[in-house]
Amino acid sequence: MQLLEYDAKRLLREAGLPVPEGIVVSAPDQIPSVVFPVVVKSQVPVGGRGKLGGVKTAHDQTELEELVANILQLDIKGYKPNAVLIEPALEIARELYLALRINRDQRRLEYIVAAEGGVEIESHASDVDVLPDSPDVYEQVAKILQLDAVETKKLTQQLEIAFVDNDCLLIEINPLAVTTRDQLFCADAKIQVDDNARFRQENLPLPEVTDIKPLGGNIGVVANGAGMAMSTMDTIYAAGGKPANFLDIGGGTGQEVFATNLQKIADLPGITSIIINIFAGITRCDDIARGILASQSRVPNLPPLYVRLEGTNREEAAALLADAGIDLQPDLASCVKEAMNYV
Ligand code: GDP
Ligand code: MN
User: Fold this and answer.
1) Which residues does the annotation mark as catalytic?
2) 189 CA → ligand 2 middle, Å
3) Using omega within 30 degrees of 0 as the cis cutoff, is the peptide bond preceding 175 cis?
4) Which residues line ligand 1 at a C-beta cut-off of 6 Å?
5) I want to staple 339 with a disulfide (CB 3.0 to 4.6 A). Which of 33, 48, 253, 273 is the partner?
């Protein structure tokens, strides 16, 4: 998954890299007072925003409000942003390109560097160097980018900490900006994280899911298989209740996706409870239980859950959930009854 710029920059900042102090807003009325000029940046998970009008400079409050409103409406390669990042505008003297990625074929980390970075990087493809990671790689990086060696050593060390700590596949800083006062800043950051390592990355945002169909009722539904989801809805209707959504969560669902789905359901208007009805074949009940436990800490507005699990590792799941104060329901009917009683 590719992180949004502000999340990517947060990870870099945490590793000590120089990043401008920005503010994220999702509506013009959230704009705080700032020192001008500032850059306004669309937060979409794709590159090339600059060329498509997604990165603009504002010189006063009126212009800033206009730009925020415009950029929030702007479609960039099929993405509309939920937020924009506002940062103090840098006075950039040089735009460098610096990336670190995994080379799977060679089983190594490698740097990609170019002295001419920025939005035209593709047209300078011949001036890009690929450098295998090594203890003294910073010397080559410093030479190519015409940076101070000591400063570059620190920069690459911090970059590698960010990379390893967050299970990244790619960190791309373009531009790595040298200001007119000779300061270095990561002016843009694109980070791809390894979704297979998400189970140990509490610090990362939840991935997007879009397969929840809202139905307007108050009882949320999480089931695996379309048949299970439909029979859950039918049972709710038969008891006089109204399901809030349709969701077939599929098999082999990781904790991340589970938490994301529960978050989306919890955010639906008028939700009072959620029924989780899963038959575990390929999926294991204890994995579902861990997903539920992860959701309890990650979804602040989680309503009461009524859980029915059958199949592989049911007893382990029952024990895990009991420790967290959730008793497994014996069948779907009792799930629905309990959910209807809780209003
Ligand atoms: P991208 O097009 O999606 O890669 O978005 P960037 O964040 O890289 O922004 C595109 C271009 O906008 C950069 O290459 C810079 O030339 C410019 N830019 C971004 N931030 C600043 C800034 O703070 N000051 C100035 N002067 N230019 C900026
Ligand atoms: Mn960029």
Assistant:
1) 97, 172
2) 7
3) yes
4) 39, 41, 47-50, 55, 87, 89-90, 92, 95, 118-119, 174-175, 187-188
5) 273
Measured CA to CA, the distance from residue 39 to residue 55 in angstroms comes to 7
Residue from 3, 5, 55 whose mutation best tests the ligand 1 pocket (most atoms within 8 A of CB)? 55
Q: What's the gap in Å between 175 CA and the centre of ligand 1?
A: 7
Per-residue pLDDT for the chain (343 aa), expressed as one digit of tens each? 889 999 999 999 999 999 999 999 999 999 999 999 999 999 998 899 999 999 999 999 999 999 999 999 998 887 889 899 999 999 999 999 999 999 999 999 999 999 999 998 888 888 999 999 999 999 999 999 999 999 999 999 999 999 999 999 999 999 999 999 999 999 999 999 997 887 788 888 766 655 788 899 999 999 998 899 999 999 999 999 999 999 988 776 677 778 889 998 999 999 999 999 999 887 889 999 999 999 999 899 999 999 999 999 999 999 999 999 999 999 999 999 999 987 6
Look up the pTM and report it.
Answer: 0.71
> How far is Cα 295 from Cα 119, in angstroms, rounded to an integer?
39
Q: What is the DSSP string of 192-214?
A: EE-GGGGGG-TTSPPPP----EE
First to last CA, the chain: 38
CA of 188 to the centre of ligand 2 (A): 5
Q: How far is CA 290 from CA 167, 175, 257, 295, in A?
A: 21, 40, 12, 8
Testing ligand 1's pocket by substitution, the residue of 23, 87, 92, 185 carrying the most ligand atoms inside 8 A of its CB is: 92
**Nearest CA, atom 8, ligand 1:** 188
CA atoms within 13 A on the CB side of 145: 35
In this structure, the chain runs to a length of: 343
Closest ligand 1 atom, CA of 52?
A: 2
Residue 300, judged by CB atoms within 10 A of its CB (0-12, 13-18, 19+), counts as: exposed
